[in-house]
Amino acid sequence: MSEPILPQPLPALDYLVIAAHPDDAELGVGGTILSLKAHGARVGILDLTDGEPTPHGSPEIRRRETDAASTVLGIDWRGNLGLPNRLLVADLDARKRLAGVIRQLRPRILLSHYWEDAHPDHVAASALVDAARFTAKLTKTDMPGEPHYPEKIVYFFSLHLRLQLRPSLVVDVSAYHDAKLRAVACYHSQFIQGRPATSPTFLDDLRDWSRHWGWAIGAAYGEPFVCREAVGLRDLRDLR
Ligand SMILES: [Zn+2]
């Protein structure tokens, strides 16, 4: 583990995206983040690791790319928990470190990785968020902040496994999809350098994926999510 990078002050958030690697949040939930921000919500991202080493990246390059993507998304806060890339495990130390940050940011909703994937870091991140959500509400501990229990965890897809999905809900991100692709493209070392330049490129695949989920709800572009718990709606006006 290295030292976490937690820009101060830690703001109170409505939504906190917790992702294994910088770029997972953009891939899985970039359009939804842009939509939430457009509607005035306070949204942050906590990356669990620095995502390095990778074939064309370095910690410095990755940090610059992450900063550029965060600017495109217009988020309120982004931190890094300093856990080890490729070696992410949902152990007690990591759980406590993550719970301490959740207690200070106090998000109403957590968004994190779907629990099934080929990348072990993604599987570990999902389990770690489940455990930290519960741990964050404990009293009589030496963790920073006050007890807090986020109302829901919504799981997104930033997948290496080509799963046949049955999402619980799909968010219409049609108005934000161009900006989402701009945020993803900030990670030049991950998605452009060393990747095929002829169609279908990585960004072509991502657009087609979003288009498929848009089609599924009668919209142009969508992002799918799964909830373990029942999804509540205030009423049916937002259903499409
Ligand atoms: Zn990842």
Order of helices and strands: EHEHEHEHEEHHHE
Main beta-sheet annotation: 7 strands, mixed
Level of helix content?
A: 25-40%
SS strand fraction? 5-15%
Count the beta strands.
7
> Which ranges are low-confidence, i.e. pLDDT below 50, for 5 or more consecutive residues?
none
How large, in whole angstroms, is the Cα Rg? 17 Å
Query: What is the distance, rounded to the nearest whole angstrom, between the alpha carbons of the first and last residues?
Result: 44 Å
User: Any ligands, ions or cofactors bound here, and which?
Assistant: zinc ion
Q: Major sheet: order of its strands?
A: 3-2-1-4-5-7-6
Using the alpha-carbon principal axes, give the shape: globular
Overall pLDDT level: 97
- Going by helix content, strand content and strand pairing, the class is alpha/beta
Please describe what this structure looks like.
The chain has a 7-stranded mixed sheet with strand order 3-2-1-4-5-7-6, with helices on both faces. Helix 3 (92-105) packs across helix 4 (120-135) and helix 5 runs antiparallel to helix 7. It has 7 helices and 7 strands; from the N terminus they run βαβαβαβαββαααβ. It has helices at 24-38, 59-73, 92-105, 120-135, 177-185, 188-191, 202-216, and strands at residues 15-19, 43-47, 77-80, 109-113, 152-156, 169-172, 222-226. It has 240 residues and is of the alpha/beta class. It binds zinc ion.
